[in-house]
Every structure is written in C-alpha cells, then in structure tokens.
C-alpha cells in the first residue's frame, strides 16, 4: 500500500471541514487555551512559503494542546482594509472590495488573472483553524464594532489621579460643580482654567470645543507624513528613506487637522504592563524605547524683546548653566513668530528642505549636521544672558516640546552642532560646567562622577543633588517644574484614503458629532474613483451619497446638506490598525450582532494565551492593541489588562534570489580622445551577459577578459581596433531573474525561456559569451518577495510532496525565531522520512501492524520520543522534535517493530506536525473518530532506565570490542565475565594482564 499524500490530504481536509473538527466551544468543562496568529493582509500575490511558518508553529501547538485535553480556540481572519488594495484599485480600475474578496476566496479578477485565494491556500496546508469564527476587518458586520469603539473613545477622558478612563459625562459633572482647576486629566497643553460659573455660562459650542481638549480621541492640527503621490497621510513604518514604501513617492512633513488617539495617557500603564507578560526581552525593550519614559524638568525660557516663551523638557536640569544655544524643530510653531527679518529667507528655505525628510530618517541620521540661526535670542532663567535660538532637523516637533536647551559640554549631538557652526553669528563658545573634565575633544554625557562647576548655586553638587536643587530654584522663580515625560506621542488616526473604516462622525458648524450606536454600521459608500477630489479632499469627497440626515438617521445624498438637519460626514477613514487593535476579542464571539463580544465569551476566553507573529509589529500594532485593550478594560468590557500573555516572533524564511549581470557594450573611438574623451557608441547595441566576477571588475574600472575576448573575436584583433571599451558602473545592469527560469535545481539560466519572457523583453537580445549558450546565475539570500522573483509557493510544494512534508520541513529548517534560507533541495529528505514512517504500518499488500508485545528497545525508542516531543513543543523547539521523529522511525525500522502498542502512540505524537498522515494511520488502525482529540501519550521514566550497559573493552587503551553487561554487577563479577570471554582470550594470546582497570558503568581496560 503506497503512501499517496495528495489523496490523504484531500480526504482529511474534507473530513475536518464537514465535521467542524476544530470548532471551539464558548462554554466547556475543559480548560481553555487561546492560540492566535497575527492575521494576514490578503494581497493578490497570495502566500509564499515564508508566510505559513508562524501559522504552522501555532497549529502544532494548538493540536498538541487539544491532545492534552484543552478547549483550544485557534481562529483565522483577514486584516482586509488598507492602502495596497486601494492603490491596486486605482491602477486597475477595480473596486477594492472586489479585489479583496477574490484575493481571499480565489477566482478570476477583472484583468483575467487567476487568483488562488488565501483561504484555499491555507486549507491546503491543513491548519486546525475554527473557520466558523473567521473575521474580515472590511466587512460592515465587523467594522460596525470598530466604529462603536471609536465612539466610546470619543466619549471618554483619562483621570491621572485614578489612572484610568471614565465617561465624559462624569467630567462634565465636575465642570458644572467646580470648574477644571483641580481636575487631573490627560488633556491638551495650555487648557484655560475656568470656574463652574464660567462653564455653566458657556454656549454648547464653547463647551464642545473645551471637551475636545479632554476626549481620548480628538481633532487637532498635527504634523503628519503627507505623501502627495498617494494623496494620503502615512505612518512612520510606511516610509523608507524618505519615500513611501508603496510606490516610492516623496513624503513631506505637513500640518493637517486630524483625528488623534490619546495613547500617551496610557504611557505608564503600557510600561508597567511589560513586567507582567511573557514576551522576548528584545520586543519589550523596543516598546520601552518607543514609549521613552524620562524624568527631568520643564523649563521656560523667555524670548528677548518678545512676548513669547520657549518651553523645554530636559533630563539634565543640573546642567542648565552650560546652555549656550537653543534649538527648535523646524516645524515648531514659534519659528515663524520669532525669526528676524534678516534670517527669514534662510529659515524658510531650510524648513522647505527639511519637510522632505521623515522623522524616522532624521532620527536615524546622526552624521549629517544642519541648521539655521533664527536671529532671535532667549533669556537664561538665572543669569539673564542672551541665548541664540537656532532651528535644526535633529530636533523633532513630536518629541518633548520640540525644543532643546543645548548643553554642548554634556551632549554629543549638541557638541557636534556647536563645533560645526563655530565662529558663526549666533553660536557661542562652549562652556564647561564639569569640574576636572576635559571637553576639548568630546562631550561628557555621563551622569556618574559628575561635579558641577561654573554654575553658581549648583557648584560642587553631583547629578542627583544638582537636579533636585535646580528644579527647586526653577519652581521658586516660576520658570520650571519637575516633570516625567514620554517619547510616546498621540497616534494620528485619520487617513486620506477610501479603503478604510468610515468614521461614525458628522459635523455641525465644524464640530464633530457622533452618530448614535444603534444606527451603526455607517457603510463605506460607492465612489467612481479612489483618488482625492480636484480640490484636494479625500476620496470620500467623490461620494454622491455621503451626508447624515439627523431626522431619518441615515446616510443620504451629499447635495442634500443644509446644515439644519442634514450635515456633512467625515471624509477621512480610519487607519489600517483600527480593525487590528481589537480583533482577538471578536473571535471570542464572532457572530454576535449586538456586541463586539458577550460578557460571557470574554469572561471565558479572557485573553490570548499564545500570540505568534512577525517582529515588524514590535511597536505599532502591539502598542495600539495593548492601548485599546486597556481602554476597554477601563470601560468594563475587556476582562484583562493585557491582551496577549505570551508572544513569539517567528523568524523570516528567506528566498534564494537569482541575478544576471548585463554589460551594455559602450565604446569610445580613438578619435574621441581628441574630443575630450567623449563617449561615442558604435552602431552595435550589444548587451552581454557577464559573470559576477566580470561585473565587479567593470565597476572597478577594469575591462574583464571575457568581454575583451568576445569583442576581439567579433570585431577583429586589438591592434586593428579603432575604439576602446568603456568600463564603468553606468555600463552594467543587475537584474533579478525569476527562479522559475533556472534549470531544475541548478543555478543555470534557461536562456530560451528567459529570452521569450515578456518581463525581460528589453533583454531578449542579450548575447551569451560562450558557444554553448550557457549562463550561471549569481545566487544571494534575500527577503522572499514577489518583487525579487524568488518566491516559492506552498501550493507547489503541497502538490508535489503533500502538506505534511511542507509542515515538517518548515519546522525542521531551524529555531522558530531565527531567519533561515529556503532550500527546496531539502524537501525530498523530509518526504523520504514520511514514506519511511508509512512503511512501519504498511507494505505493498496493506496493513502490517500486529499485536506483538513491544520489546524493551521498542518502548525505549517510543518513550524517548514522547518525552522529547512534549518538552520541545512546550519550549517551541519544533525543529528538534522533527529530528527526534526521524531518529525514532529509524530505530523502530531497524528493530523491525510493527507493534500496535508502539505505533498507535507514535501516530498521536506525529499528529500535531503531520496531521494528514496521522489521521490516515489512525483510521487504518481501526479508529472511527479523529485523532485530533486523542489524549497525548504519557511518558514513563521506567522505559528509559538502563539495566544494561554496553562497555567498551580496551587493551592498553585501545578499544577492541564491546560487551553488554547488567549495571548491577560488581567489579569482580565484571572481571570474571570479561576474562572468560573468548575475544579477551584471543587478544591476550595466553598472556596475563598486569592490571585490570574497571569502572562500573563506564570502562574496562586491560593493561600489559
């Protein structure tokens, strides 16, 4: 009976679907275990073999937990809103909802492309997902609840004193009774103080404007990353080297009125919560750095001859007497106000230049020094000396106050800035305020062993003493106060896109109003085009039906807006992270129409026990998710403070890219030398495929032999040539080649296929520099990506070898959390293992499993594997489990074991990794139910206890043979047995050894 994985896979995938084998129950007597994957964005490219790595790991763990008797929730869905689908819609004229649906479900798109579909691809790999709970963030029945959560945020404020969010109505009550002077709330800066009488006298419009300064989601003018090419705001992680990750369009900094989330209110709780969760230290550290807690002082500097002040947060108030200049972020509101007329042109030019660099780029670039003097001076709080005010792009508007009091003697970046502009008007000499410290070469940034000098009342103090006294003096003169600051900024929540969750917001006299929850969802309208309007409004500005009728409580035609009962709706949409910031709770109760999840479901599942996903979400998604979860906890909805107990970041599977190097033959006539070395192309547009070695020679200015020889052969001997070959990096191209264009598993290019491939039509006429027309591509390990043509699809692997081979191979590649290159050549070895496993149960005539009593060796092999596999899965060491399976099967094969007592538990052990073959084996063994719920075999230590020992027997230190003896023998008994052994007699050849060395359980050595 032959192992046929394709038939087995199809059979059991059908069985699981029809019987809902992996459906989790919300009320079960079993203990619960919630295993979650970061859900995918369904792109048209589909899955490559790198995508399922984390899914396979989570599936192994989920299946293992079911074997252990847990009620396992292991769901899957799609993060289906986002910019890629919208851009694809713009390019192809398709509706993003249509392309998203085809990408998930499979089918043919408008361009006639056959799309496999994520769902079908995932099913082919045999995941034990509870598909009945599938979610798609772009479905109205899902984003209805995202809109509801937004409304809750809008109707909430954060009390610093009690450290949690409360309903905005409670804040209104406080204002009505006692004003806001004593309210400890997270709110906008510079909120005006008012009494209860003043509050009660305000108009409703005035009250709404004030409340917007306290709400957890609010409208504000914010510095954003604006991408004109895409017509939208981008998050920092959507920008690479100053251009958009998608499309490569320039990105500039721009002020826009945007919805923002007051995530900064939760900064301390987000920090504290890291102590209570089982995440890797690297991910925790990423979050800590992003939140960026720092303790110091807020200092106020007055601008000389103006009514303006500059507020600065510093962690080193003890160094205040070392301030020699100030630096503002180019975007700082004060720049335009304080810049002198003489400096205005230079400042405006610098601001324009800086606007084209992203915050991330500016933060990362520590080498480039640039800045401009504003012409203004601030006043030192204590000495009253004038301090020049500069602008520089190393200061960010979104960090601290967007202003720095520069102390060059104590900060390396300030030191470099001061030295770079040394001697210019507006740059003072560096002051040294540290006793016995040389700053002639570098700044002294340490807080240790500091003795303050040249600092008036701070002289002789250390860092701690100086900080405390400086803050006290600043508070005394009313120009500063002690403060804890966070790097974490409020998150911009608006996107000028179409394909996202509509806000449940309409505007009355420019002020936002929430649509009542009972009228949700507000469904994304139809639009003719997904680009911004001609006057620059977001794509929803193109919608013909996009206004809110407050009498009928429904969306009506846009041209009906009368600002009496029909009002304009919000034109922006929510960002991609809106739907992914709470989705794990929806899985708990996916079909609840009235709530995002019932209290009963939330109370049962509580939080995610194991979360697996990529490290690229170390800050963004994980911070936003934790923020929303904490907020929902405050409001009495989420049952736990943290959403994800344990987090594992799977490593990346890398692709093996293939490259060709093309030399565009450029020449220079001898006559050209007399014309200033001007390059003149001869009339043969040759394109030569060259080796990597030749490529490296050319860009180094050397003409490689293979090019010289070919040109000489084709155009005559060197001595007769009237031209020279030009060698420069401008003369060569490097191109990725689709790995499907290689011959089999070799690195040789299929030249015929390459020349006929439309993707390389500009190179169809390339010349191969040898008569055999043979070209060996260069190979390099890179990120697996469609753009690099190095993608291997799981569909192909499953079709050729079966899903279990793919699953085992991905787990076998190496530790889960490490990056590893894909090597298709290794697949056949894993496939061979499965065939060998099959042969323990079947021969060509059918089942050969018997009821023989297992031998001691059989039991030892089995129980070694039980112990190893259970430990490995709990430790997420999946690769070593696969190794143990191979060892076990090899041992059982050599032992000629076909005992049911061994092979039944072996099938269960293999089941989490290779579920299809395990189900088939279980069925063929006579069982009528799925193997997935069968208890995991119990490890018994007794089967690993050694009763015998195989001793090496040595003569004068050289091992000659081995002998197996009981471990409980004495030295004398061992010696007697060994001496009587005929092999010993042969070695001694009638001689008597001078000494017999015996260490029980270890060695036997006969000397002399």
UniProtKB/TrEMBL annotation:
A motif ('KMSKS' region) lies at residues 783-787. Belongs to the class-I aminoacyl-tRNA synthetase family. Its EC number is 6.1.1.4. Keywords: Aminoacyl-tRNA synthetase, ATP-binding, Cytoplasm, Ligase, Nucleotide-binding, Protein biosynthesis. This is Leucine--tRNA ligase. InterPro entries: aa-tRNA-synth_I_CS, aa-tRNA-synth_Ia, Leu-tRNA-ligase, Leu_tRNA-synth_edit, M/V/L/I-tRNA-synth_anticd-bd, Rossmann-like_a/b/a_fold, tRNAsynth_Ia_anticodon-bd, Val/Leu/Ile-tRNA-synth_edit. Residues 288-474 form the Leucyl-tRNA synthetase editing domain. ATP binds at residue 786. It holds the Pfam family Anticodon_1. It catalyses: tRNA(Leu) + L-leucine + ATP = L-leucyl-tRNA(Leu) + AMP + diphosphate. It is found in: Cytoplasm. It comes from Flavobacterium artemisiae. Residues 859-971 form the Methionyl/Valyl/Leucyl/Isoleucyl-tRNA synthetase anticodon-binding domain. Residues 11-155, 777-809 form the Aminoacyl-tRNA synthetase class Ia domain. One of its GO terms (molecular function) is leucine-tRNA ligase activity.
């Amino acid at each position: 009976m032959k192992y046929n994985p394709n038939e087995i896979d199809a059979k059991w995938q059908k069985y699981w679907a029809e019987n809902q084998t992996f459906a989790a129950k919300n009320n079960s007597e079993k203990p619960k275990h919630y295993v979650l994957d970061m859900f995918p964005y369904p792109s048209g490219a589909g899955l490559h073999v790198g995508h399922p790595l984390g899914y396979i790991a989570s599936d192994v763990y989920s299946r293992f937990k079911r074997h252990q008797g847990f009620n396992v929730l292991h769901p899957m869905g799609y993060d289906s809103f986002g910019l890629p689908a919208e851009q694809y819609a713009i390019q192809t004229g398709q509706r993003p909802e249509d392309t998203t649906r085809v990408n998930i479900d499979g089918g043919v798109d408008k361009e006639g492309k056959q799309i496999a579909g994520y769902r079908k691809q995932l099913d082919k790999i045999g995941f034990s997902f509870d598909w009945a709970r599938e979610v798609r963030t772009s479905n109205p029945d899902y984003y209805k609840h995202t809109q509801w959560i937004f409304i809750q945020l809008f109707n909430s404020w954060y009390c610093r004193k009690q450290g949690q969010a409360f309903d905005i109505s409670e804040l209104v009550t406080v204002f009505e009774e006692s004003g806001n002077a004593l309210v400890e709330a997270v709110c906008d800066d510079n909120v005006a103080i008012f009494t209860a009488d003043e509050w009660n006298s305000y108009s409703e419009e005035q009250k709404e404007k004030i409340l917007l300064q306290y709400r957890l989601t609010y409208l504000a003018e914010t510095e954003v990353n604006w991408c004109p090419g895409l017509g939208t705001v981008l998050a920092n992680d959507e920008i690479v080297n100053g251009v958009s990750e998608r499309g490569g369009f320039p990105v500039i900094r721009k002020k826009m009125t945007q919805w923002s989330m007051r995530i900064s209110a939760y900064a301390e709780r987000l920090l504290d919560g890291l102590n209570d969760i089982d995440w890797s230290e690297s991910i925790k550290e990423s979050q800590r750095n992003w939140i960026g807690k720092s303790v110091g002082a807020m200092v106020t500097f007055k601008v000389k001859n103006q009514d303006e002040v500059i507020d600065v947060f510093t962690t080193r108030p003890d160094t205040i007497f070392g301030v020699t200049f100030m630096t503002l972020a180019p975007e700082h509101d004060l720049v335009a106000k304080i810049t002198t007329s003489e400096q205005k042109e230079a400042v405006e030019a610098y601001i324009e230049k800086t606007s084209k660099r992203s915050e991330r780029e500016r933060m990362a670039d520590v080498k480039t020094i640039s800045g401009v003097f504003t012409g203004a001076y601030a006043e030192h709080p204590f000495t009253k000396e004038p301090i020049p005010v500069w602008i520089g792009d190393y200061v960010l508007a979104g960090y601290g106050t967007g202003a720095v009091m520069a102390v060059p003697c104590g900060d390396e970046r300030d030191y470099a800035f001061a030295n770079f502009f040394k001697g210019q008007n507006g740059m003072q000499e560096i002051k040294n305020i540290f006793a016995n410290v040389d700053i002639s070469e570098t700044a002294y940034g340490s807080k240790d062993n500091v003795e303050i000098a040249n600092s008036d009342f701070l002289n002789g103090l250390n860092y701690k003493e100086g900080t405390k006294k400086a803050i006290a003096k600043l508070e005394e003169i009313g120009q500063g106060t002690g403060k804890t600051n966070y790097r974490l900024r409020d998150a911009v929540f608006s996107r000028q896109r179409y394909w996202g969750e509509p806000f449940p917001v309409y505007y009355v006299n420019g002020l936002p109003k929430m649509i009542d929850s009972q009228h949700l969802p507000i469904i994304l309208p139809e639009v003719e085009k997904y680009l911004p309007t001609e006057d620059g409004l977001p794509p929803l500005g193109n919608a013909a039906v996009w206004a809110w009728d407050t009498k009928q409580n429904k969306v009506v035609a846009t041209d009906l807006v009368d600002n009496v009962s029909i009002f304009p709706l919000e034109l922006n949409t929510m960002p991609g992270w809106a739907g992914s910031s709470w989705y794990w709770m929806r899985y708990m109760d996916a079909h609840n129409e009235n709530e995002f999840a019932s209290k009963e479901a939330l109370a049962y599942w509580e939080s995610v026990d194991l979360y697996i996903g990529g490290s690229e979400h170390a800050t963004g998604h994980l911070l936003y998710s934790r923020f929303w979860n904490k907020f929902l906890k405050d409001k009495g909805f989420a049952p736990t403070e943290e959403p994800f107990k344990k987090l594992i970041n799977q490593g990346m599977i890398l692709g093996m890219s293939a490259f060709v190097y093309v030399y565009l033959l450029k020449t220079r006539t001898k006559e050209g030398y007399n014309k200033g070395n001007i390059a003149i192309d001869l009339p043969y547009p040759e394109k030569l495929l060259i080796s990597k070695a030749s490529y490296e020679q050319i860009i180094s200015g050397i003409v490689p032999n293979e090019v010289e020889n070919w040109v000489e052969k084709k155009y005559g001997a060197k001595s007769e040539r009237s031209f020279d070959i030009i060698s420069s990096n401008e003369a060569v191209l490097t191109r990725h080649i689709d790995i499907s264009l290689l011959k089999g598993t070799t690195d040789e290019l299929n030249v015929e296929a390459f020349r006929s491939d439309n993707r390389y039509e500009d190179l169809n006429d390339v010349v191969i520099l040898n008569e055999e027309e043979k070209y060996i591509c260069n190979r390099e390990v890179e990120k697996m990506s469609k753009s690099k043509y190095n993608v291997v699809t799981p569909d192909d692997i499953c079709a050729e070898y079966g899903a279990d081979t793919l699953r085992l191979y991905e787990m076998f590649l190496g530790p889960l959390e490490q990056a590893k290159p894909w090597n298709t050549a290794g697949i056949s070895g894993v496939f061979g293992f499965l065939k060998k496993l099959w042969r323990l149960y079947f021969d060509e005539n059918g089942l050969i499993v018997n009821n023989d009593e297992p031998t001691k060796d059989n039991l030892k092999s089995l129980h070694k594997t039980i112990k190893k596999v259970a430990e490995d899965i709990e430790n997420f060491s999946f690769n070593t489990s696969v190794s143990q399976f191979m060892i076990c099967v090899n041992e059982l094969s050599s032992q000629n074991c076909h005992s049911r007592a061994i092979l039944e538990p072996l099938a269960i052990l293999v089941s989490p990794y290779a579920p299809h073959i395990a189900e088939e084996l279980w069925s063929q063994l006579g069982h009528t139910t799925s193997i997935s719920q069968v208890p995991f075999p119990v490890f018994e230590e007794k089967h690993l206890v050694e009763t015998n020992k195989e001793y090496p027997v040595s003569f004068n230190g050289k091992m000659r043979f081995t002998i197996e003896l009981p471990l409980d023998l004495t030295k004398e008994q061992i010696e007697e047995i060994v001496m009587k052994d005929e092999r010993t007699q042969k070695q001694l050849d009638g001689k008597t050894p001078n000494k017999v060395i015996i260490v029980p359980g270890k060695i036997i050595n006969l000397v002399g």
